[in-house]
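Dear colleague,

Thank you for sharing your sequence with our group. We've completed the structure prediction you requested, and as agreed, I am returning the results in plain text so they can be pasted directly into your records. Please verify that the sequence below matches your submission; if there's any discrepancy, let me know and we will rerun it promptly.
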Amino acid sequence: MVPPFDSDSDEREKPSWRDIDRKRDRSSHVSRDEHSRSEKSLRSTWAKEQYLKKVDKLFQGGKGSKEHKAARNAIHNNYGTSKFASSVKKYLKKYGIPDDWGTLMLLLDYKDDEVVVQVIEALKEIAPERSPVERQGFRDKLEILAITASSSPIISLAEKLSREL
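Please find the predicted structure tokens below.
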């Protein structure tokens, strides 16, 4: 049988909410300076990103510079215009064959057969890393090149690769 409820027996010392909060604030498990820690975390993340950008530029050599970015953008901006060939020529003279997929795909429309062969080879190397949609676009472009190119090395290479992909 349960004893009747006696309010006097339940009069133990209960801490107020203020006391509970105060004890929690003094705990060594709770951070006292959470605002400054988050700022430090953000600063360290930003510093790490800046450091990694600088390291990437160092290893890229000339291809990490603002001039390189401007030359690459000139190719993209002049695609389909009369300035495209001169933009590509300047880029190739200074930096060689580009590394990025988008620029390489544009260079498939360049008129120099030797460059187009090099571009096809470069795209072939990085195609396995690309998405299925991008590989399909490359395959379609090769099929178009096989039909429209005037150079037999380009035609044979394009036909061969379009079957392999």
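Summary note from our side: The chain has two domains: 37-96, 97-165.

Kind regards,
the structure core
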